[in-house]
Amino acid sequence: MYIITIDPDKCQGDGDCGDVCPVKILAVTEINGKKITIVEGNVDDCMGCGSCTATCTHEAITVQEV
Ligand code: SF4
Questions:
Q1: Nearest partner of 18 among 4, 1, 37, judged by Cα
Q2: Yes or no: is domain 2-65 CATH 3.30.70.20?
Q3: 12: buried, middle or exposed (CB in 10 Å: 19+, 13-18, 0-12)?
Q4: Which one of 4, 13, 17, 22 is least enclosed by Cβ atoms within 10 Å?
Q5: Residue 62 has what pLDDT?
Q6: Within a 10 A sphere around the Cβ of 15, how many other Cβ atoms?
Q7: CA of 48, closest atom in ligand 1
Q8: Is residue 61 in contact with ligand 1, taking CB distance under 6 Å?
Q9: Which of 42, 12, 9, 43 is nearest to 28 (CA)?
Q10: Tens of pLDDT along 5-58?
Q11: Bridge partner residues of 65 (DSSP)
């Protein structure tokens, strides 16, 4: 299983990670007027492929196997 961490200070909510996620568990939402990506689907579906971290140009998302 994997833990997905999104740094709200770094995330710009551009949605690139959600676009490349093969299991579509990342989604952009808006909190207090700021766009941010959240884990919207079932985190257990994460395959740990690393596509999201590789795509994020802000280094805002990390995926750790536990
Ligand atoms: S590691 Fe892969 S499956 Fe998991 S959230 Fe990132 S892109 Fe999706």
A1: 37
A2: yes
A3: middle
A4: 22
A5: 98
A6: 14
A7: 1
A8: no
A9: 12
A10: 999 999 999 999 999 999 999 999 999 999 999 999 899 999 999 999 999 999
A11: 2
